[in-house]
Amino acid sequence: MTQQPATVLQSLNMGLEQALEDDQRVILLGEDLLDPYGGSFKVTRGLSSKFPERVMTTPISEAGITGIAGGMALRSLRPVVEIMFGDFTTLIADQVINHLTKFNAMYHGQGDAPVIIRTPMGGRRGYGPTHSQSLEKYFLGVPGLTVLAPFHLMGDHPLGLPGWLLDHAITTTTSPVLFVENKLQYLLKLATPADLTEFDVRDASKGSGLPYPFYQLSLRSAPAPQVTLAAYGYMAKLAMDAMTALAYEQEIFCELLVPTQLAPFELSPLFSSVGKTHRLLTIEEGTPSSGWGAEVLARTTETLGGGLSRAIRLGAKGVVVPASPQLEADCLPDTADIIACVQEMV
Questions:
Q1: CB-based contacts of 276, cutoff 8 Å, min separation 6
Q2: How far is the C-alpha of 257 from the C-alpha of 31, rounded, in Å?
Q3: For the chain, first and last CA: distance in Å?
Q4: Which pLDDT score, from 0 to 100, does residue 344 have?
Q5: pTM across the whole model
Q6: Does 39 lie in the same domain as 130?
Q7: Concatenated DSSP letters for 279-334?
Q8: Are strands 199-203 and 214-219 parallel, antiparallel or unpaired?
Q9: 192 in a domain, yes or no?
Q10: Same structural domain for residues 164 and 220?
């Protein structure tokens, strides 16, 4: 990347550009990707002008786009699919679950399918019931599928930037990846640990053998944390806001664990933190029933047993996401909800 991006969106755009520059096998596929529109959230803006033969706009057929990408991958290309809204990943489930993730096993190790599927998830933009959901939980248990979610913090991990994480997935993976981008993350400013003067930040993946960053954040000079928070994507940003408010207003101190790899589940840094606090709050924008937080709590209980004394899952209410901004805000978890859960636990 030739210049320092300022936002998550710019970082992802530069990550795609870098992958296209570095590897002639990289192809971008999706609806309305071409300039001047540049995709519904502008992550691909400018790329069709620079790489006109390898950025392809497609008909409105998510299953068709993903199936074609699977064929490209089997012919040694590296396709990157954009699904315009994460809600439409329901339409690619068959291609992912019954095809892309199974080719290598079905064809005796000769069916690598390195398809990267990028998609914006989440609400808070008033887009209504079918354009505001967080559906990644339906893909977390699929064998052979990696699910990644970038964070707006730039740590010292080689993949610390969202764009670096995406570029690495595109150019190195040998299996399919679902890359989850929360809509409200796009305009978040990238922050370095030096920018976060109130936080101590470290990459808990160091020395653990984990392939992707796993951030651990606590407030500087704070007493030992009383609660472990676990969140990813944009919800991790809200968790950081809650941590500050809890410390200054309630004198309740938390530690936040932020994985960028959601599946397969690699949670050893989280177990280490909960082993000290004995309390765990998982935070996700999707509904918590049978979700990411439920699996994290289950695995933590299996590992720590009686070492986990209190646990709560926080997520969206189990209703259709409303179009009304006020009702939508009431449906989705926010900083106040995180604070209330922590207060209840302590």
A1: 224, 225
A2: 35
A3: 45
A4: 97
A5: 0.96
A6: yes
A7: EEEEE-SS--TTSHHHHHHHHHHHHHGGG--EEEEE---SSPPPSSHHHHHHHS--
A8: antiparallel
A9: no
A10: no
